[in-house]
Structure formats: C-alpha cells, structure tokens
Amino acid sequence: MDNVGKARTLAVLIPAALLGGAYVSQYGFGLFPCEMCWWQRYPHFAALALGLVAYVAKPPQVWTALAGLAIITSGLIGGFHAGVEYHWWEGITACSRPGAGIDITNFADAPLIRCDAAPWSLFGISLAGFNFLISCLGGAAVVALAAYRK
To answer: Which of 23, 40, 82, 109 is the most buried (most CB within 10 A)?
Structure first.
C-alpha cells in the first residue's frame, strides 16, 4: 500500500474508532457527553465523510489531507476541553447540558453534564485528553502521508 492509501485508511479508521469509543462510553457506560464533547465529535464526522470521499474522488491526497485537518481540529478542541477539565483555564460559562434519557417534561430532575469535570480518566488523562493525543498525532500522520510524494 502506498502512502496515500495508508493515509486514506487512517483518515477513516481514526475518526471511526474515536467516534465508536465515544458512543460505547455513552451508551455502554453511561458517560454522557457535555457540550464540548459534542464539539469534538463534529469534526470527526466530517473527517469520516472526507476520508470516504477520498476513496472515490480525485485527487485523493486533497480529500485525505482535509480529513486529516478535520481530525486535528477535533484534537485541538479536545485539548482545550482537557484544559478546562484539569482547571488550567476556564471554559465557556454555560457549558453544561442535560444527560440523555431524560423526561423532557421535567427538566428540574435532569442531571447536568458539566464540561469542567472529567467523568473518567486513565493514568490521569481524560477522554478529551485522549482525543487530543490520538487526533493530533493521528491527524498529523494522515496529513503528512497524504502530502508525501515519491
């Protein structure tokens, strides 16, 4: 497989894996997303679509590089969100949302999902932090491989 093929594969696998992990966390483990968590998902949706377009549209390097940039965008949002969770800086003032599965007629009992509290971490790294690490490194690899010419 050439570099463009590797980049194209990564451009689909990285956002698919990260979105899959987000949805398993949400529906399998009850870790409902806050507003900033959703912001991180949107560029991954775009990257997944761009990565798939790269399989059918010409030139594939351009579509793959755009997917890589979308992955990096999600990672940068994740880095900002991780900083908010670690209290390195303040986030937006109204960053909270009701959890899923709530009776919409009774918001008084709805739990709020806060952006400044990490609901889960591994080795001190939150899900937003992992998104930052994986997306920025993986997205950079996608862009570099797509741009590399023999």
So the answer is: 40
Residue ranges of domains in the chain: 3-90+111-147
3-state DSSP assignment of residue 109: helix
Distance CA 79, CA 131 (A): 8
DSSP secondary structure of 4-43: HHHHHHHHHHHHHHHHHHHHHHHHHH-----HHHHHHHHH
- For 99, counting Cβ atoms within 10 Å of its Cβ (0-12 exposed, 13-18 middle, 19+ buried), the class is middle
- pLDDT, one tens digit per residue, over 11-27 is 899 999 999 999 998 88
CA-to-CA distance for 41 and 47, rounded, in angstroms? 10
Q: What is the DSSP letter of 123?
A: T
- Could you tell me if 91 and 34 are in contact, meaning their C-beta atoms sit under 8 angstroms apart? no
Name, in order, each residue with C-beta under 8 angstroms of 60's C-beta and a sequence gap of 6 or more.
4, 8, 54, 146
58: buried, middle or exposed (CB in 10 Å: 19+, 13-18, 0-12)? exposed
